[in-house]
Amino acid sequence: AKSTHGEHVCFYEARMDEVARDRRALAKDLWQAIGRNEFSVHYQVQKAVDTQEITGYEALLRWKHPERGHVSPADFIPIAEECGAILDIGEWVLRTACAEAASWHNQAKIAVNLSPVQLGHVDLVHLVHSILIETGLSPRRLELEITESTIIGDKARALHILRQIKALGVTIAIDDFGTGYSSLDTLNSFPFDKIKIDRSFLLEAEHSPQARAIIRAILALGKSLQVPVLAEGVETVTQLELLKSEGCDEAQGYYFGRPAALVPDEAGPDIRRSA
Ligand code: C2E
Ligand code: CA
Ligand code: CA
Ligand code: CA
């Protein structure tokens, strides 16, 4: 198709308008989603690579939009962060995940994702503390997943908050490790308890010696810092074997289980919810 430069720009601007309108519409719906009961939390199992014992579950937010159906968190979380709705939503996820985990019969950890916006705008220490008291969840069972972008803003402030959260007995995991901006600097100055290797490295590991080398380097880093490393996105037995041979501590991915509303039966009757 032959289109002049002018037409092309016009079309592009119309598209951008449409995208912006769509984001505004979603933002408006996001503000009402809690009240309308449209959110739920799914849980994905995390296991020890050598024994395949369950070490925890990651809480992953799900949104069933009344007209659009399921919207991916990868699509709506950035919008929620931009419009500020993430503050209420993040609090809702934390409260719901802690309350649900407190009712499980086992003592598995619950890992909850934290948005950088939450660290910047609410009294997170107070919030975490009161939710733990309210739900009765032992602080030892709560892990907060943060990305490096959480820390690149006001470092001193972020560090102060994370130290106070750790003082409650809650642990901190660095999510999507290897994809951020200041990886080594982050490791050097932050009080984290786990490194999660981003899925992209494992995805390429079978075919790319470079990706394997990066995984190996992160594992070596974890060993020397005495911090356990979890690999994300394990889908095949081959990938699991690779992690095993490299000495990775924990893994999470479709191979062990997809995120689900109920903690799966494979964990045995002990882990089913009480009611
Ligand atoms: P994330 O924290 O890196 O979470 C892992 C994502 O990888 C999840 O996508 C999970 O379903 C997916 N996943 C797990 N195993 C596999 C696998 O073997 N193969 C593949 N292809 N994917 C796998 P999900 O649930 O769509 O969430 C996407 C992102 O949205 C999350 O990435 C996280 O950044 C964000 N998110 C989800 N829930 C929350 C939340 O409650 N709060 C905040 N702030 N962000 C959240
Ligand atoms: Ca995560
Ligand atoms: Ca991740
Ligand atoms: Ca990710």
TrEMBL record:
> Where in the numbering of this chain does the EAL domain appear?
23-273
The signal peptide annotation in the UniProt record is: none
Coiled-coil stretches are none
What protein does this entry describe? EAL domain-containing protein
